[in-house]
Specification:
17 helices, single chain, four-stranded mixed sheet, alpha/beta, seven-stranded mixed sheet, 482 residues
């Protein structure tokens, strides 16, 4: 099928950088971009009028956990002060005796809802570093149903994190050192990489840096090279991790990772905001940014998630100035990659006290070519002949934007995933007029809401101290019952 998108402000690719093409035209042939320019004369099967809209390359979201926001809702735990910015421990480090596998239907709904939310917000490609455990063939089927492109394999680790009966957090090494998990991930990639016409892509996901021993990381690097796939690793995301690695290996996180060989041009470090020299850490910054830059690894920056935990990368501009490659991820809901560009910009300006910092162009690059290059995919994140036909059309004709002069500045300053009207992946329109062409959105939302309410209502049965959801995060206002 041949599609022509006419009349919009096209964000084309010059071969070296993005460029603006007013009243442009993008021609798609099957799963590939045929041409980008101003020629509107080519015969096609379908014409899309994009007047008053941005025609953008599909965004690359480098951090989407395929699960409901049950745990995200609990992050702002008001009952404890010792998480050290690792508040995901409130749900991610359970009392060992209370661990019960989530029911398969709940896992499936979480996967469906998260992946669809990211897609609808304009991310044609997402990196999933792990959601709830569940059947892997079902995961592949869900990706096939929704139509987005997903980099995934099941995560693994050599140690687990638990909470004891007194609320103390501790690490427990697995007797198998995490090797069966790595083997399972390798088997998944060998079986499913390239499924659904390439919509499923393999990536190795060793879990948090402090839960993976050096041998497991070295084996991961070797396996990724053999399989020719990227790597994702949570690292530099909280102070507890930094202190644990410092106490165990006598070096900061990046130096520890560099010694394992895990860093490289196709490695994404999810978060990497806490380094030596950070204002929350009483430890000097050494060569951490230099080591990341020299390795070619990418930082998957999630500014909204960090802000929820009351800290920030210090800073977006400082990392860029050091030569560090940066992509963007959402991690937490609402999985809005467009809003994430604004968070990256504004928070960096606050940290540096520089109103001219973190320019929209750099943030847009992080959400497009930054993520694509991290995954080793020069055919994503840009609109150019021969690239994959991943296109997002964003409506700028809303009162929230007001009159605008530069489309990218306007998008980063004011934009939202709610402005996304059309999403095209591999030449297929999967979101049209803001609605999925493949699934029943209303049914999905109803199922997700029911599942989340059930989990929150039963939270006390799995919490280390029997706390309810309302104990952990009190309602904003009291509820009138009569």
């Amino acid at each position: 099928m041949k599609i022509r998108i006419d009349g919009g402000v096209v964000v084309g690719w010059s071969g070296a950088e993005h460029e603006i093409i007013p009243d442009g035209s993008v021609v798609i042939e099957n799963d590939t971009i045929h041409s980008v320019g101003t020629d509107k004369s080519q015969a096609v099967d379908k014409v899309i009028d994009a007047s008053g809209k941005i025609v953008s390359p599909g965004f690359v979201n480098l951090h989407v956990h395929s699960q409901l926001n049950v745990g995200d809702y609990l992050l702002a735990d008001v009952t404890r002060k010792d998480y050290l910015t690792a508040n995901w421990f409130v749900f991610g480090a359970p009392l060992k005796e209370k661990i019960t596998p989530p029911p398969a239907p709940a896992v499936a709904i979480g996967r469906k809802y998260a992946l669809f939310s990211a897609l609808k917000n304009g991310a044609t490609t997402v990196l999933d570093p792990g959601g709830g455990p569940g059947a892997l063939d079902e995961y592949v089927a869900i990706v096939g149903q929704q139509g987005g492109r997903v980099f995934f394999s099941p995560p693994y680790r050599s140690s687990d994190i638990f909470t004891d009966g007194q609320g103390r957090l501790y690490y427990e090494e697995r007797s198998d050192k995490g090797r069966p998990g790595l083997e399972r991930a390798v088997a998944f990639i060998k079986q499913y990489h390239g499924a659904h016409n390439g919509r499923i892509q393999g990536i190795l996901n060793p879990a948090q840096a402090e839960t993976c021993d050096p041998a497991l990381l070295k084996e991961t690097a070797a396996a990724a090279k053999d399989l020719d796939v990227p790597i994702h690793l949570h690292a530099g995301g909280n102070a507890r991790e930094f202190l644990h690695i410092l106490n165990t290996y006598r070096k900061p996180v990046v130096e520890y990772l560099a010694g394992t060989g895990i860093l490289g041009p196709r490695t994404t470090l999810g978060h990497m905001a806490i380094t030596g020299g950070h204002s929350r850490i009483d430890y000097p910054r050494g060569d951490e940014l230099k080591l990341i830059a020299e390795s070619g690894a990418t930082v998957g920056h999630c500014p909204h998630k960090c802000a929820k935990m009351a800290f920030a990368m210090e800073s977006f501009d400082q990392y860029l100035a050091a030569g560090v490659r940066i992509g963007l991820g959402t991690d937490t809901y609402p999985l809005d990659i467009i809003a994430e560009m604004r968070y990256a910009s504004l928070i960096s300006r606050l940290i540096d006290r520089d109103a001219a910092g973190a320019r929209p162009a750099d943030c847009f690059n992080a959400a497009t070519i930054g993520g694509a290059d991290a995954l080793g995919r020069k055919d994503l994140g840009r609109l150019a002949a021969g690239a994959k036909a991943d296109v997002v059309i964003i409506n700028l004709r809303t009162t929230r934007y007001g009159p605008w002069r530069d489309p990218i500045n306007a998008l980063v300053e004011y934009g939202s995933g709610a402005d996304v009207e059309t999403v095209i992946v591999d030449g297929e329109i999967v979101i049209e007029n803001g609605r999925s062409t493949r699934i029943d959105e209303d049914e999905l939302f109803a199922q997700a809401n029911t599942g989340a309410q059930r989990a929150w209502d039963a939270w006390g049965s799995r919490d280390w101290n029997g706390r309810t959801t309302e104990d952990i995060i009190p309602p904003a206002f009291p509820t009138r019952r009569t």
